[in-house]
Structures are given as structure tokens and as C-alpha cells.
Amino acid sequence: MIWDTRTRPMKTGHYKPVNILHGVHTTVPAAGPASNRRSNSARNTESQQSVTTVLFKDENNLYSSGAADGTIKMWDIRRYYTTAKGVLQPKHVYPYVGTASRKHGISALALTSCGSRLFSSCTDDNIYMYDTHLDTKDPVAVFSGHTNSTFYVKSCVSRDNEYLISGSSSHSLFVWDIKHPLLPPVKLDGHSGEVTSVASSSCDLGQIVSCSDDNTVRIWRSMTRPLSVRMGSRSGLLPGFLITLLC
Questions:
Q1: I need a surface site. Which of 61, 142, 156, 198 has the fewest CB within 10 A?
Q2: Could you say which residues of the chain have pLDDT below 50?
Q3: Per-residue pLDDT, 40
Q4: How far apart are CA 165 and CA 178, in angstroms?
Q5: Nearest Cα to 152, choosing from 214, 218, 216, 108?
């Protein structure tokens, strides 16, 4: 659903959606034993239809991703979909390209500030990078090294578009150099629960904020160094990047 907050709310105080896209990530679950189908049918139907992430590419285009189809779709929201019949046709589709035996869902989408790179955090423990200027369905790079077991794990791009930052199910924060996707990520330890949300400061390029299921919010400060440095135990090397925990 898409709302326009510039419109006047209804008498109830709620806003009426101005556009509704129905069933955009619906998948049909595989048939199982009769008993399982009866007991889990309602739960399966709900989970297979979930839209996990939406992200504006610009004022006219919107990305969406699903919980089970591993697919990213781009929609032209200048079209009115609310009364459309049949299967809705997106403007562009990025299908699941992982090697897992089943398709995995997407927990987060992120864009560089200019919108040229799209990052898709997948629950197969990979983050896929797409070039939005290319008419292709394949990622141009894959970032790995972390674990993502839930749809609560989010990722973001640093404000200078140099680094990809992600939480993880393994209680750590991970940072990759976008220009060197094959380098192992820097692993930041400090949380004692799943790291769910991350953000890059809008006023200080050197600050990263993370929050976790351990009920803490932590602030990290990066400093430029001329040589690669090793961060903590078993962490990777990232050129010119040193991080200290502020709180």
C-alpha cells in the first residue's frame, strides 16, 4: 500500500491508501502430507505472501521484496494498480540467483545515494549488489561472510558510498569495502544478541550505529588509516578503515 501524507486524513484520523499493489510476492507453497497441510495451511499462506521490504528508487519507482520468492521487483507507481485485474506486471524483476536448494527471502534493501547500486540482503547469508543502470537481472557482486537467519537483520550503505554495513544473526556487525567485494569484511564484536538494525550517521561520516536484541544501541567511530589493519579476533582486513567502539 502507498499513502500520500499530503492528502487530508479521513474522519477517523487515518489516511486512505492512494495505490494498492495486490499479491506482488505471492508464492504457492509445495504440497506436503495431508495432516501438515491442514494444520499449517493458514500460517503458510500468510508467510508466503509477506512483503518484507519496500524502498523508493526515486519519486516514480518503488522496489519491493518478498519473504519466500527471493525476488526484487520494481514498480512504476505512476500507474494505478488498486483496481487492476490479474497478475500485476512490474517494470523490472531481479530473480533469486543464489545456489541454495530453495529460494530465500529478502530482509533488507539499500541504495547508494545516487541510486546506481542496489543491495539486497538475503536470508541465504549473502548480500547481492545490482547495477540499476544496466538492463540485466544478474548481480554485479556478492558480499558474504556474515549470517542472516531472520528478516530482522538489516543493512545500509555508508553516506560516502564506500562501505556496506550489515547486522547479523551471529551477534556481530560486518563492514565491506564496496569497491572490493572479494575482500573479507571487517567483523565488529560487542553485542551479545542478534544485530538487527544499522545506520550510518548523516552528520559524521565516521560514525556507525547498531542496535541488537541484547537491548543495547552501540556507536562506532571509524578513522582513516594509510594501511590495512586487523579488527578484533578473526576479523578481515579492510584498507583504510579502523573502528573503535564509543559506547
A1: 142
A2: 35-47, 224-242
A3: 47
A4: 10
A5: 108
- Sheet with 195-200: list strands edge to edge: 195-200, 207-212, 217-223, 242-245
pLDDT of 26: 80
The letter for the amino acid at 33 is P
pLDDT at 73: 95
Bridge partners (DSSP) listed for residue 144: 126
C-alpha cell at 51: 512483503
Instruction: Give the predicted TM-score (pTM) of the model.
Output: 0.81
Long-range contacts of 224-232 (CB under 8 A, 24+ apart): 231/186, 231/187, 231/188, 232/187, 232/188, 232/189
- The whole-angstrom separation of Cα 154 and Cα 208 is 13
